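re: that chain from earlier
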Amino acid sequence: IKQRSEISAELEYVSQRAGFYVEKGIWQGVFLENLAELGNDFDNLIVPEILSAYGSDWVPGRIKVVISDMVTSFGYIDRRDTEDIIYLSAEHLGNDLLKDTLAHEFQHLVTIYNKEDRLDREEKPWLLEALAEYAPVVVGYNNMTEKRKDDFFKDPSNSLVGWSNALYDHAPVNLFMNYAVEQKGIDFLKSIIASNKTGVNAFPDFIDLYVDWTIANFVNDCEVDVRYCYQNEVLNHKVPPTVNYNLFPIESLSVGASAEAYSPHWYKISGLTDEDRIIKIEFKGNDDEVDYY
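^ sequence. v structure.
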């Protein structure tokens, strides 16, 4: 919160499941309507829909939601011994993205309760975020997913699992979880939450799912194959090739590139004649134990 260790906030609105606090100095009366709308959605949509979809029996008490003056973040959570606090950016109050953020942050609490508190397992950061990124979709919001799609195009080869909390790290995990739930069904979320495994090991067929997802991002056409498309109408994108190679008039080509784990790249190869449409591709890396897909 702008490099401050503490803030002063006052309780401005109370709903059934949350108390909404606003940092002193930024309160305006017009915000009351926004807080009431947030409270209504939190009580009647966000909490019941997320608990149902993720299969949690957690019964949260009234949660503190603090509207504060932030620099870059839409929101985050702060877990303390006696209470859970969700912080939201005052800059985005009245913006529909804030509802998505409230759903996102509440889902973090659900995962932490089920994974850390009950199973004594700390979820991998990328999957912790992926589960939360899908929460707005569960509730019926698509604002954050649309934003993540736009971000995805700015760095489509960003590693799915190499989480560093960088600007575009949320994009691939959002799209991947959208795709995974569409392919596996909504109960897939419950299996991840209930698993004592974490990260890629929580998926029974992670490699197959990952490979199909990378193809779906390029093809994205359900008429070709239902495995190679998104059903969410917001995710109507097709990524362009990372690199284009033309084999005419040459017969072979050797190129070098570096890639992080689970970092997709799409190569378009043209120049093949009608008589010779078979192409042989060999991958060689510095680590012989690395698999390429």
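The mean pLDDT is 89.
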